[in-house]
Amino acid sequence: MTGSIFVLGLTLTNKVMIGTAVLGGMAGVIGCFAVLRGRSLVGDMLAHSALPGVCFAFLLLNSRSLLGLSIGALISGLFAIGAVTIITHWTRTKEDAAIGIVLSTFFGAGIVLLSVIQKPSVGGNKAGLDSYLFGEPGNMLTADLYLLTIVAVIVLLIVAILFKEFKIICFDTDFAKSQGWPTLSLDLAIMTSLAVVTIVGLPIVGVILMAAMIIFPAATARFWTHQLHTMLLLAGGFGIAAGLLGTKFGQGLPTGAAIVLTAAAMFVLSILFAPRQGMIARLTAEVRLRRRMAREHLLRSLFELSESALPQLPQIPLQRLRDYRYWRSLDALLSKATEKGMVTRLGQAVQLTAVGYRHAAELTKAHRLWEMYLMQHANIASDHVDRDADDVEHLLPESLLVELEQQLASAGRLPALIAEVPVSPHQLDSDANPPKH
Amino acid sequence: MDTLCQSLNPLPTVALSTGSWIVLTGAATNVACALVGCFLVLRRMSMMGDALSHAVLPGLVVAFLFSGSLGIVPLFLGAVGVGLLTTFLTQTLHQYARVPSDASMGVVFTSLFALGVVLVKKFVGGLHFDIACIYEGSLELVPFADPIFGLPRPLFTTLVVVVVNLAVLVLLWKELKVSSFDAGLSTTIGFSATAMHYLLMVLVAVTTVASFEAVGSILVVAMLIVPAATAHLLCDRLALMVTLSALLGVASAVLGYWAAVYWDTNIAGMMTVAAGVLYGLAVLFSPRYGIFSTMIRNLQLSMKVLREDLLAMLYRVEELGSDKFLTADEARQAVGSRWLARWGLAKLYRTGRIERAEGHLRLTEKGRSSARQLVRSHRLWETYLVKHLGLPLDHVHEPAHRVEHFIDEQMRKELQIELEGQGQDPHGREIPE
User: For residue A113, what is the nearest residue in chain B, using CA coordinates?
Assistant: First the structure.
């Protein structure tokens, strides 16, 4: 298959599809490092600052060969990176401002040069150079496709060879430096690869959309994994998919814009539907946690209200439960708990079932153990521990509870157990006093 | 170009030359940008100008589609809408989806821009939306635009924005200032930093759109950041920074116009380059934060240290007894660099601190008293390090050698009190009075 792709006679659409897919793939991979290093907008800067280099190359070579113009673009891109580095190292200007300053000044210079090229005395017209601003995938030649593929292979090789080094400077530059890695050179290697990718992509998708190609696949992949190598593969995949689908479905629209909108659609879908880190998954998890917490609060309250009558399980009037603490939606909560067989409802009263009682006893134990631990080891007053324990009780693992129990028991602080639940270390509203609320 | 403005135009155009109109429009744009740009730079959100100037495209298209014209009011509404939308999306992505803030900005503005490009292609057909024109602007054409109240339309629009920006700055100066430097404090004392953030973004969006027609997005992006960053290199007070950046904006407009006419090139591009050049000059020559002035200050300091080391060396040689002397050559060798030593010695001769006698160097009375103070600082510090920090004897010379140049009379008094009048340093040498 790969062999047959590169025979001449590909239709333009196929050529554009392959080209944008290759571009998307490598931009996705190298973009991961830009996004992880907090340099997402460097792609934007490189894309803008390529313009004066393109114009100079055009003026010098007087041709529109992609290679010549790209080398010009690369040189001015490297100058831009150098300028940002100097500004951030030597002056009080912060990195964001430095990027903005370099971007706009270089681009302004590019516009000045463009207007020079347009002059009749210079003999050129800027058609063809415009594609460097706005992208013109329709102009893609088979030779351009070869160039793209070669660049992609080189960039992927660099990433594969320096994977470990890139990884370490992405996540902990200081550690890398202290271990003796040449962080500056590695950083420059990433930046240069980024510059090369940006610049070969410019004539295809244009300045702004090239910036997008760097950020989108990486930001999308970030939602699906915590592993760098998986992220690189995914980002490459997303980039390729954006190129293919954007070109396929975007016919009649500007190709660059169609690709970016495709990438944006994948991004939005990932934000919503990615497992674990997607917004829906996170919201569901949160709602579930809230529900569990509410249910556990209900059980513990019922336990505390029943405590004086134990081992009998008394019927608790609903009004008493309502006065005991604030409930967001007690009725829904009760019917859910009834469904689960934790409580029985008897008209205007509720009663713990045997299953519910055992569960409630465990929860109350966790709550009180934590309270005692706080009083014992964190020296928190007994009337301040209830709230803290309220939040933590739902999250205490069994092993920790056992440990707490042993500790408190060996310190002689574990009072007599009622059904293995220690007495509350502080006054409860359910004790003798009538409800205060 | 558009009907709304022509109908509002009862007055004839004020007579001014073409060039003056262009410079005035450029300067007004630059001032409008500089006023809000300072806050962008201070809040480290410089790229927001770039983002907004691209993101407003769909807003403009929608405004154009709804109103059928490029009238001022719909354009501004479109700008405000998109400004709020961009800010909201960027913040939401960052806060709730945990996308890094720069990536979320990049994601939002590029998709909005792509959306705008598609909308242009689908609905407007390039009629009034030459995208290249959005980049480069058409400052050259300003004098020929329809006049409003005697001013060319783009100039009028930008002047309105200057007034609006200025009014917001004056009215909410304290709030903007506090929220820029300390968002947490601002929220605790009662004005929401988030509200200020949104307000600022709306101002940036409005400024951007107002300037599009005349100067193009690239000049706007530059003028939001570059003069403000230049001013930030030159001063430390916010009010001064805002004033300076406005002045720098005007200067870039004048210089840029002049250079563009001289070389016959794009005016907006040249104004951008002028602003960049001014920034470059500030980077090199700013009195306080420039690279050269920092280098010169460092050089002066190291020369002062070198001269003081020479004096202290002569003093110590004198201490050893009257038959020991130091020749100029030996001094040079001790310093390490011939040229620096010669330079330092020359200055010491000139200020009358040392004199030459029979091929030897000798301290004058004046030189001896300053050398004595230095050696005193050195030995007081050594004693202090040993007595109060418990450093071993062979570890105190180096730190004292470095610190001695920065210990003044006040500090010497305090050290002496701390040491309770101890007369000898830990090596057993006398601490001179």
Answer: B265
Report in angstroms the alpha-carbon separations of B396 from A239, B403, B404, B414, B428: 61, 11, 12, 19, 13
Return the minimum-mean-pLDDT range out of B3-7, B186-190, B245-249: B3-7
Q: B273–A99: do the CB atoms touch at under 8 Å?
A: no
Say whether B219 and A99 touch across the interface (CB within 8 A).
no
Cα B293 from Cα B287, distance rounded (Å): 6
Q: The tokens of B97 are what?
A: 């989806």
A286 lies within 8 A of chain B by CB: no
- What would the pLDDT profile of A254-299 be if each residue is shown by its tens digit? 888 888 899 999 999 999 998 888 888 989 999 998 888 888 888 8
Mean pLDDT of A234-247: 92
Please give the distance of CA B420 from its chain centroid, rounded to a whole number: 48
Residues in chain B: 433
Closest CA to B33 of B267, B221, B251: B221
Of B414 and B422, the one with more pLDDT: B414
CA distance A54 to A45: 15
Percent of chain A with pLDDT strictly greater than 90: 25
Residues above pLDDT 70, as percent of chain B: 89
Q: Inspect the interface and report whether the beta carbons of A257 and B114 lie closer than 8 Å.
A: yes
Tell me whether A125 touches chain B (CB under 8 Å).
no
Domain boundaries, chain A: 2-275, 285-422
- Which residues in chain A have their CB less than 8 angstroms from residue B93's CB? 271
Beta strands in A221-342, from DSSP E residues, in sequence order: 316-317
Closest residue on chain A to B276 (Cα) = A105
Q: Which of A111, A130, A134 is opposite residue B266, by nearest beta carbon?
A: A111
Q: Report the CATH number of the A285-422 domain.
A: 1.10.10.10
Could you list the beta-strand ranges (E) of A163-269: none
A2-275 adopts what CATH topology?
A: ABC transporter involved in vitamin B12 uptake, BtuC (1.10.3470)
* Ranges for all domains in chain B classified under CATH 1.10.60.10: 368-418
Give A223's contacts in chain B (Cβ within 8 Å). 97
Give A87's contacts in chain B (Cβ within 8 Å). 283
Q: Give tens-digit pLDDT for A67-104.
A: 888 889 999 999 999 999 889 888 888 888 999 999 99
Distance from CA of B184 to the nearest CA of A (A): 21
Contact B111 A111 (CB under 8 A): no
Yes or no, beta carbons of A97 and B225 under 8 Å apart: yes
Confidence of residue A333 (pLDDT cuts 50, 70, 90): confident
Question: Min CA distance, B167 vs chain A (Å)?
Answer: 25
Structure token digits, residue B264: 């016959």
Q: Where are the alpha helices (DSSP H) in A91-141?
A: 95-118, 130-134
Give the span between the Cα atoms of A42 and A25, in whole angstroms.
Answer: 18
Domain span(s) for CATH 1.10.3470.10 in chain B: 3-225
Of A49-53, A343-347, A420-424, B343-347, the range with the lowest mean pLDDT is A420-424
Min Cα separation B16/chain A (Å): 26
Instruction: Say if domain B3-225 classifies as CATH 1.10.3470.10.
Output: yes
Closest residue in A to B119 (Cα–Cα)? A253
**CATH class for the region spanning B368-418:** mainly alpha
Between B323 and B422, whose confidence is greater?
B422
Please name the member of B102, B273, B291 whose beta carbon is closest to the beta carbon of A41: B102
Which whole number is the average pLDDT over A335-356?
85
CB A261 to CB B118 under 8 A? Answer: yes
| CB-based burial label for A83 (10 Å; 0-12, 13-18, 19+) | buried
H helices within B120-171, ranges in order?
131-136, 153-171
Determine whether the interchain pair B107/A215 forms a contact, defined as Cβ–Cβ distance below 8 Å: yes
User: Under CATH, which number does the domain B293-363 receive?
Assistant: 1.10.10
Tell me if domain A2-275 and domain A285-422 are identical in fold. Answer: no
Q: Hey, is the C-beta of A133 within 8 angstroms of any chain B C-beta?
A: yes
* A224 contacts on B by Cβ (under 8 Å): none
